[in-house]
Amino acid sequence: MATQGQVITCKAAVSWEPNKPLVIEDVQVAPPQAGEVRIKILFTALCHTDAYTWSGKDPEGLFPCILGHEAAGIIESVGEGVTEVQPGDHVIPCYTAECRECKFCKSGKTNLCGKVREATGVGVMLNDRKSRFSINGKPIYHFMGTSTFSQYSVVHDVSVAKIDPKAPLEKVCLLGCGVATGLGAVWNTAKVEPGSTVAVFGLGTVGLAVAEGAKTAGASRIIGIDIDSKKFERAKDFGVTEFINPKDHDKPIQQVIVAQTDGGVDYSFECIGNVAVMRAALECCHKGWGTSVIVGVAAAGQEISTRPFQLVTGRVWKGTAFGGFKSRTQVPWLVEKYMKKEVKVDEYVTHEMNLVDINKAFDLLHEGSCLRCVLTMFP
Ligand SMILES: NC(=O)C1=CN([C@@H]2O[C@H](COP(=O)(O)OP(=O)(O)OC[C@H]3O[C@@H](n4cnc5c(N)ncnc54)[C@H](O)[C@@H]3O)[C@@H](O)[C@H]2O)C=CC1
Ligand SMILES: N[C@@H](CCC(=O)N[C@@H](CSC=O)C(=O)NCC(=O)O)C(=O)O
Ligand SMILES: [Zn+2]
Ligand SMILES: [Zn+2]
């Protein structure tokens, strides 16, 4: 039955309130308007940023909403004026848009895009500043411009990357956030050179992807730091060459690393979202040139600090969103690299479940064994 132009009623996991179990609801998804597309979401993973917003600590968190931003699917229909994708195309929704026309896109200096970010930050579509999701007439907010915990989602056309239809969607969905972010933090944001020493704080999906990116960039030492020693064995497969558990040391971790690396590392990456660790990550960098990249997302009200002397003496503090990748242009390229076996993706999928089990999947995020849990949306 043709669904184009019709309201679709489908299943979605709705977050009614912070910290309360998500509820599988019948949700009405309106057709896409001008400059929008409706995607049949086939697979979505959970990222820690979903858990962060669900916890109520995200200043942009709005409820009720449909979370989810690491997914893959097929275009069901397109709105007026959409030319770059059509029904049947395989796509990855992208929370970092790329309009190619705004000041940010044209700057050549950033992957951030200004076209839809303000609207996505308040959970609506740009066109009419309304949500396309509702339950019996009650609007449900969008999240990150993606809302992939729904069997159908409407996103802006500038927020969708068309990918190789041969790519396995149940795997490449991970290129919609965590894996891409870690790789890009190394390749685009830090620009790690061969022979560099690297410290990675936090060995979850993002940290392991940083390690993998550093390995392919030719780093000579990749030091993984995590408070869970069980993380260390698996991390070797992603390129980590040595491990430090801060709990095994009395001294601050930055002093331990400086002592073990002849004055500090060339590059460090904070992949946790802990502001104290962000400071340690900066301060373990080498005087004169060491660069630290903040990847982790810290809660509202948290602030970073260090002695300005750390920067005066040549250390550089940076941050990265989606690893600096230009989403529509480079996500298809990342998918091709995966298809050519030049980057790992399958190895990050540790669990698979159906949409109805989404609350169990959220519980798994807090278990050390879980990297990514991929949900099948149409079992
Ligand atoms: N900037 C961006 O574009 C993106 C940021 N993120 C953020 O990156 C962070 C990491 O995400 P995931 O890898 O999915 O998280 P995760 O929770 O799987 O990994 C975090 C790791 O840090 C370890 N850890 C926790 N506290 C620690 C401490 N004090 N010292 C050392 N290790 C510690 C944990 O044991 C865990 O292995 C999150 O804050 C997430 O929100 C995620 C995707 C994109
Ligand atoms: N609303 C949050 C923003 C958290 C954040 O920094 N998000 C990252 C992506 S995290 C993905 O898993 C990001 O891309 N930021 C850039 C942006 O434009 O949002 C908060 O306010 O804390
Ligand atoms: Zn994410
Ligand atoms: Zn733009």
Automatic annotation (TrEMBL):
GO terms for biological process: formaldehyde catabolic process. Keywords: Cytoplasm, Metal-binding, NAD, Oxidoreductase, Zinc. Its cofactor is Zn(2+). Its EC number is 1.1.1.284. SUPFAM superfamilies: GroES-like, NAD(P)-binding Rossmann-fold domains. Signal peptide: none annotated. Homodimer. CDD domains: alcohol_DH_class_III. The keyword Cell membrane does not apply. Its main location: cytoplasm. Residues 34-163 form the Alcohol dehydrogenase-like N-terminal domain. It comes from Protea cynaroides. It catalyses: a primary alcohol + NAD(+) = an aldehyde + NADH + H(+); a secondary alcohol + NAD(+) = a ketone + NADH + H(+); S-(hydroxymethyl)glutathione + NADP(+) = S-formylglutathione + NADPH + H(+); S-(hydroxymethyl)glutathione + NAD(+) = S-formylglutathione + NADH + H(+). NCBIfam families: adh_III_F_hyde (TIGR02818). GO terms for cellular component: cytosol. Residues 206-329 form the Alcohol dehydrogenase-like C-terminal domain. Transmembrane segments: none annotated. Belongs to the zinc-containing alcohol dehydrogenase family. Class-III subfamily. It is found in: Cytoplasm. This is S-(hydroxymethyl)glutathione dehydrogenase. One of its GO terms (molecular function) is zinc ion binding. It is an enzyme of class 1 (oxidoreductase).
